[in-house]
Amino acid sequence: MVTTATTCAPLIEKHTIGYVPPEDRHGKTRDLFTLWFGGNIAPLPIVTGALGVQMFHLNLVWGIVAILVGHLVGGVLMALHSAQGPQMGIPQMIQSRAQFGSLGALLVVLIAGIMYIGFFASNIVLAGKSLHGVVDSVPVPVGIVIGALGSGIIGIIGYRFIHVLNRIGTWVLGAGIVLGFGYIFTHVQTADFLTRGSFNISGWLATVSLAALWQIAFAPYVSDYSRYLPANVPVAATFWTTYLGTVLGSSLSFIFGAVAVLATPVGMDTMDAVKLATGSIGPLMLVLFLLSVISHNALNLYGAVLSLITLIQTFAYRWIPTAKSRAILSIIILAACCFAAVGASANFIGHFVDMVLVLLVVLVPWTAINLIDFYAIHKGKYDINSIFKVDGGIYGRYNPQALLAYAIGIVVQIPFMNTPLYVGPISEHINGADLSWLVGLLITSPLYYWLANRDTAYKRRLSTGKLANSI
């Protein structure tokens, strides 16, 4: 199905957080498959996927099962957020004002921005290490700066260029990872490839959670990359192309990490294991992963900038951010991340994974509230004008029902948490498995639906507004 409204969309994106009008809509739903498939064939998901056998001591079969279950479940939430983009025509984070109010949404926007910056910084460290692995004469700090500059250029050019690169990357990286699997399976270097590790319920649940949380981590910005599609694109088409792309791409990367680690001696760093396990094609794999990191990391910089613009515009509501504003903020964030990454500790990525696990505790109830509000309460119909008003228009500065459900959604997760900052009693009782995300979803979703439907004053305000996705 062709869903292109404009055949000559500019390469350099002119919009930031504003509504994308119909005349500027372009693209096809299949672009979402290539974006999320190609974007997930990268070192960070490979390193994360290896944890199932490295840290949680699962064997290959049970590790693969846990990875698939986690991505299949988490991908549903991620793809439901993606399907909001064409209907709303605005970035995901600014849309949160319709649920939380113009000021009530600030906390979630801030947390999402911090997470994007953390992703960006950790990925430029991986880029630096990958470049050093390919060319020994390039020091890691220099590689970090080169990787950051590459991602910065892509992020500044914006939406359309990101999609173009990932269309190419899907074919190149897809072929590369299949080739890598083939080489590893025919050159296994360990006798315990199939027998190392075993099934244990806590490790299995932990790996499921890790995979599901990987998908949920995309939720705050996934619809940013579907918002330019025409508004008449079927929700089902947006959902399925996103879902299949993200689940297939991330599952392949997670499993690749587990396979590489099991095919090499115990105790090796994951990316070193990948290089050793892929033997003669190892340098080629490192080059592909380096290009993947640079391309995919542009999404993190792009998301961080949109979050920062949203925060600033909340108070400077007369400010109309332009492509120039986006470029300046991109350079500032890029420079700060390079400075932090060059001086980072050797275990920077490990610390980052720990940080994401903490931040996701507060993002999970946001996901629940956003999806229930969009699909069950408003059914995709919002007053876009109100979302951009300083007082929140018909949505107000604060929505007490959303904030109450959000706070309760965080509190109920505490006993089930397993983070570097705190291990809950229930998680401790089940050998460290973190089920907080599942509890947060199951409690917050019906609670917010019930609170929102009880608030007659809020519904009266909404009924006086023009609930249409236009501006």
Automatic annotation (TrEMBL):
Keywords: Membrane, Transmembrane, Transmembrane helix, Transport. It comes from the Bacteria. Its main location: membrane. Gene3D superfamilies: Hydantoin permease (1.10.4160.10). This is Cytosine permease. One of its GO terms (molecular function) is transmembrane transporter activity. It is found in: Membrane. GO terms for cellular component: plasma membrane. It is a multi-pass membrane protein. Belongs to the purine-cytosine permease (2.A.39) family.
